[in-house]
Specification:
CATH topology of the largest domain: Rossmann fold
CATH architecture of the largest domain: 3-Layer(aba) Sandwich
Largest sheet: 6 strands, mixed
Structural class: alpha/beta
Shape: globular
Number of domains: 2
CATH class of the largest domain: Alpha Beta
CATH superfamily of the largest domain: P-loop containing nucleotide triphosphate hydrolases
Order of helices and strands: EEEHEEHEHHHEHEHEEHH
């Protein structure tokens, strides 16, 4: 399979603090990749670099074979890179449907009935269609997480970046969310998922990368990686029930 994303020697520092240290990997088209690491490891910074909200100090980012290192966040989004945020960031005073429409029109460039139909399809996929007219600020945590995914999917991504979307959910809520992510992946969307709820992550991804202090320290089969003594040490105190 061809690569949809390539990170080549990404470096980023804030003063004396290095948050990306010669970070390199490739994502195959249609793959689901998991990213783990302790708090402060540089995981969300990596997403910021991929989406263009941060510029790297060194290295290059290629998306579908094109060097996008200097492209704006808006241009990357239009090209097919979308993300969710660890802390949901809906337009709280707007309805669920209006939030979806903003993504479809502004990120995907759709309009009129085409945008409306697309939003309805995505809301059905993310189990939010019945709450389309609910004001986003009144949603439960699970539904706010679902809305984060909805807005990302309404942008028609080829690559979906999920940032700790299972965090704070109950076990039963995780089961429901995992199925939605599996369905999204089965539709052909490539996924990179940062997550601390490892059992949820392992239910979806087929490859795992471990990041610590901005460096990639392990990569490979998820169960093999989680059995690594080095990874166990880094994850001391974090549940890793696979």
């Amino acid at each position: 399979m061809p690569s949809i994303l390539q990170l080549d020697g990404l470096g980023k520092a804030f003063g004396a603090v290095t948050v990306a240290d010669n970070l390199s990997y490739e994502l195959e088209e249609g793959e689901a990749l998991g990213i783990i690491g302790p708090n402060g490891a540089g995981k969300t910074t990596m997403f910021n670099l991929i989406t263009g909200t941060l510029s790297p100090d060194s290295g290059a980012i290629r998306f579908q074979g094109e060097d996008v290192t200097k492209h704006s966040a808006a241009r990357r989004c239009r090209a097919g890179i979308a993300r969710s945020f660890q802390v949901p960031q809906p337009f709280s005073g707007m309805t669920v449907f209006e939030n979806a429409m903003v993504a479809a029109t502004q990120a995907a460039g759709m309009s009129g009935h085409e945008a409306e139909r697309h939003c309805i399809e995505v809301l059905d996929q993310t189990a939010l269609l019945e709450k389309a007219n609910v004001v986003a600020g009144s949603l439960t945590l699970l539904d706010r997480k679902r809305l984060e995914m909805t807005r990302s999917l309404c942008a028609r991504p080829k690559l979906l970046l999920l940032d700790e979307i299972a965090g704070g959910l109950t076990d039963s809520e995780c089961v429901s969310l995992i199925q939605t992510i599996k369905d999204v992946h089965a539709s052909g969307v490539s996924i990179i998922w940062i997550e601390h709820v490892v059992h949820a992550l392992l239910a979806v991804v087929n490859r795992l990368i471990v990041i610590d202090f901005g460096r990639k320290i392990a990569e490979g089969d998820p169960k093999t990686i989680m059995a690594s003594p080095e990874v166990q040490e880094i994850y001391l105190g974090i549940e890793v029930d696979a």
